[in-house]
Amino acid sequence: ASVSEDESRDFSQATPSSKSNSLRTPLRRGSSKIQIRRKDCNLSFSREELFKIERDNLTLLKKIMAHAKPRTVSLNQPFSHKKTSAAINRAKQQKKIDQDNYILYSKISAVGRTKRVF
């Protein structure tokens, strides 16, 4: 079993660490100028079909991005943090406590103003 010149060239392009790392595979050349690793090859579609799918996906992505609303960040307005529900509940509870304290204060001060009769 002799190794052809193309196959020996493909294995010479492998990284030096490929001997220790079995996950890396040597690069191979196809009819196109794009190099594809063997582990990245799709067995369901031919290479031409994959390139067509990639082109179609890129075209669709460009169309979607053209219709997407541009995100504008206002530099003039400072970033405001959203209040958490715990903070809102704490504020409500504190307001209720303040109202109750005011009612008690007004009752106590009303009693203190009246004359004491013995």
TrEMBL record:
Pfam families: Hmw_CFAP97. Residues 1-33 are annotated as: Disordered. Residues 11-24 have a biased composition (Polar residues). InterPro entries: Cfap97/Hemingway, Hmw/CFAP97. Belongs to the CFAP97 family. PANTHER family: CILIA- AND FLAGELLA-ASSOCIATED PROTEIN 97, CILIA- AND FLAGELLA-ASSOCIATED PROTEIN 97-RELATED. This is Cilia- and flagella-associated protein 97. It comes from Graphocephala atropunctata.
